[in-house]
Design a protein that fits this description.
mainly alpha, 4 helices, DUF4404, Chromosome segregation ATPase
Length: 93
Amino acid sequence: MELETEMSEKDLLETLEQLRAQVAALEADGSSKARLESLIGTLEQRLQGEGSEAHHGPLVAELKEAIAHFEVEHPRLTGILNDLMVTLSNMGI
């Protein structure tokens, strides 16, 4: 189980880096970028163990909202967000 968690965290870190790259290249308004950067920060806090399980529900909901918001105009970004959802699910979040 520990190895699986380490793999999931590694996958999550790699996916977060992909997301950061996409956000940096994103042609969107400032509030959309800020929303994504906030989401990345929240995910990083969770990875560092700073979030409690009570925050998992809102985190997943925020990811789903971001996917819905960006899926038409930014399909690559949406794919990365979906990858994050799968990784978090595999981690039990």
